[in-house]
Amino acid sequence: MLAALVARDGGRACWGSAAVCDERTSAEPAADGALPPAGYLVPDDPAAILAALQAEADVVLVSGGSSVGQEDHAPLLVAQQGELAIHGIAMRPSSPAGMGRLGGKLVFLLPGNPVSCLCAYDFYAGRAIRRLAGRSPDWPYLCRRLPLGRKLVSQVGRVDYARVRVAGGVVEPLATSGASILSSTTAAEGFVVVPGDSEGFPAGAMVDVFFYDQPSERPE
Questions:
Q1: ω into residue 29 within 30 of 0, thus cis?
Q2: Chain-wide mean pLDDT for the chain?
Q3: Under a CB-based contact definition with an 8 Å cutoff, are residues 21 and 79 in contact?
Q4: Is the pLDDT of residue 108 over 80?
């Protein structure tokens, strides 16, 4: 399990001890106003996990051990020692994600699979960290409306975080599933969100693309 502690310093969010799934995910908090030092692993031991959860911080991010398996201790500890407000979301990927409070701090339970972790961070934890840093909670990504090159299939009742790339001004979906396939994100230029009340978008439909490496021009 990976743990991250986020504290505020003079109104700016900064990292305590931190480690997140991969290079792209670990860069996200820094972009949101956080400063990353060396990270650390927490063993699958309830006492060690509880100590990490109780550390002094404004926000605790836990990556891995967020599901319902025998070694997934973090959700149970948050429920026992604080408040587990949400555990399990209708989203692909990142369905095992959760969030709550413990000792007055926000706790975000992020899946261990890299793509799921990034998705859950984008939708939930990143918004909280940006707000703590005095920034807009909205995504800090450039958004462009572009046509789909081929059909993007989804399922009613679940939000899909579809990784995409753009070629010649046309959006090409890469993946909606495959939470453990990091290449589906490292090869992506951005993502499209398919809302939970949609079965997807047909080829030629205009969709909003959020570009990972292009910051929004919106003022803070």
A1: no
A2: 81
A3: no
A4: yes
Residue type, 105: K
CB 139 within 8 A of CB 125: no
Give the contacts of 196 (CB within 8 A, at least 6 positions apart): 90, 156, 157, 158, 159
Beta-bridge partners for 210: 143, 191
- CATH classification at residue 74: 3.40.980.10
β-bridge partners, 161 = 193
Does one domain contain both 98 and 33?
yes
> Which residues constitute the domain of residue 162?
141-215
Instruction: State pTM to two decimals.
Output: 0.78
Here the tokens at position 79 are 């429920």
- The burial class, CB within 10 Å (0-12 / 13-18 / 19+), for 204 is exposed
Q: Tell me the β-bridge partners of 147.
A: 206
The DSSP call for residue 4 is: E
| Helix, strand, coil percent content, the chain, rounded in steps of 5 | 20, 35, 40
Place of tokens 């205009």: 206
Number of domains comprising the chain: 2
In this structure, are 39 and 127 located in the same domain?
A: yes
